[in-house]
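Entry:
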Amino acid sequence: MNAVKIISYIAAAIFIFFGVMFIYATFSPQGQIGWLVVGLVSVVIGFGLIWFASTRKPIAAGSGEDVTLKIDLPANVELDTLKCNSCGGVLKPENIKMVAGAPVVTCPYCGTTYQLTEEPKW
């Protein structure tokens, strides 16, 4: 359960509690009709928050949203062809996908899947 749902449920409980208290106080000897209105509005807001929290869908990883990663390379960069570590087949950019924030490549020739790592240049 995410933080928005938890906060919504807590706020709903507070609104409903005080709304019921205002409604109950309306029928006391010193009660006023305005308290009934405040109580009903508070209860409606509380149930509205419960409805909001229960119908809100969390954003899940891999939910079909595309992520674009832009890389700023220094000048004089030479690109080598990317080859599969298992079979040596040439890989294309279409074979690389981001999975949990890491670039993962799937070889179209041998079917091997592995995470791309960058070795230090020094």
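The helical segments are 3-26, 33-55.
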